[in-house]
Amino acid sequence: MNIGIAPLRQAADTLLSARNLKVHFSVRHSNNKATLRAVDGVNLDIREGEMLGLVGESGCGKSTLGKTLVGLVRATAGSIVFKGTDVAGQSAGAWRRLRRSLQYVYQDAGASLDPRWIVGRSLEEPLVIHANLPPAERKRQVQETLRAVGLRDEHALLYPHELSGGQQRRIGLARVLTLRPRLVVLDEPTSGLDVSVQATILMQLRELRTTYNLAMLFISHDLSVVRMMCDRVAVMYLGRIVEEAPTEELFKRPSHPYTRALLAAVPRPGERHVVDAPSLDGEPPDPSASYDGCRFRSRCPVAGSDCQAEPDLLEVTAHHRVACHRRPVHA
């Protein structure tokens, strides 16, 4: 059944929208120029106060997409509409003014801190650049933000190397929260941490989301954490979104073969059955190669002749979209 191309429905509380977003880089292979399509036609909405998960294998373009949405990487084409204004083509100066509202938390929080500065100075720096506040008010906001992420005032006097990995992650969060942003992109916020520290960070993210009414783009390989934390999930493969749905809908009824293969690898304690799907073999194709048709077809167990055409991201239910010629049509 052909259900036709469905436009991406924009909710009334949409904070940021990307449409046909592309980020291409020029690269060289054996002295030949090529184009690496890190992000290649992404449509995505992020709503006020929601946590949207973004998952996929390494190299699929997740981090590039996150950085592009907050202006750290310049888009090659497409639009990024934030609070009703297209900001994709804005100048570097305009993006700096937007930095108060759009923030990115790096996976390696310690590397984003100047090792020569005490924590307090690193936390105060965004306020010096972006806010015209007296020193006493800057200090008060730094203390308030430190407490919000579960740290004490005296942590402001320490250097980054004197902090544990978990404390560095919290400082990374505190550094962006001093500006009271509307959207925060979290790049693998719990990777490499002990389980107990991960739990602490995740609980604090939930509290911060409620306290500051933050929208969050949660980039992660850990699907069990994504299921616990996120309202919706977008699955990315080779620069494109191949499936997007409310979290429980996606985990209970995954429709794309790639999504099914990812979920089949997730252990589920106490459950007899997991998603019935073959394992995901091989590595993703070279993103600098030219593609005709579905980019997943070389690894797909159900690929057919119709997969030589690029599938559109279509609705299978009101809020569940899939880019696959073999997608089911749910009742």
Question: Could you give the topology of this structure?
Answer:
Elements: E1 14-29, E2 32-47, E3 51-55, H1 62-69, E4 77-82, E5 85-86, H2 92-98, E6 102-105, H3 119-130, H4 135-148, H5 165-177, E7 183-187, H6 195-212, E8 215-219, H7 223-229, E9 232-237, E10 240-246, H8 247-252, H9 257-264, E11 314-317, E12 320-322
Parallel strand pairs: 3-8, 3-9, 6-7, 7-8
Antiparallel strand pairs: 1-2, 1-4, 4-5, 9-10, 10-12, 11-12
Helix pairs in contact: 3-4, 3-5, 4-5
How would you characterize this protein structure?
- The structure is a single chain.
- A hairpin with a 2-residue loop joins strand 4 and strand 5 (85-86).
- The chain has 331 residues and is α/β, with parallel strands linked by helices.
- It is built from 9 helices and 12 strands.
- 28% of the residues lie in helices and 24% in strands.
- Helix 3 packs across helix 4 (135-148), helix 3 packs parallel to helix 5 and helix 4 crosses helix 5.
- The chain has helices at residues 62-69, 92-98, 119-130, 135-148, 165-177, 195-212, 223-229, 247-252, 257-264, and strands at residues 14-29, 32-47, 51-55, 77-82, 85-86, 102-105, 183-187, 215-219, 232-237, 240-246, 314-317, 320-322.
- The model is unreliable at 1-7 (pLDDT under 50).
DSSP summary: helix tally: 9
Low-confidence stretches: 1-7
Note the run of SSEs as H and E.
Answer: EEEHEEHEHHHEHEHEEHHEE
Biggest β-sheet strands, sense, barrel: 8 strands, mixed
Integer-rounded radius of gyration: 21 Å
Question: Tally of extended strands?
Answer: 12
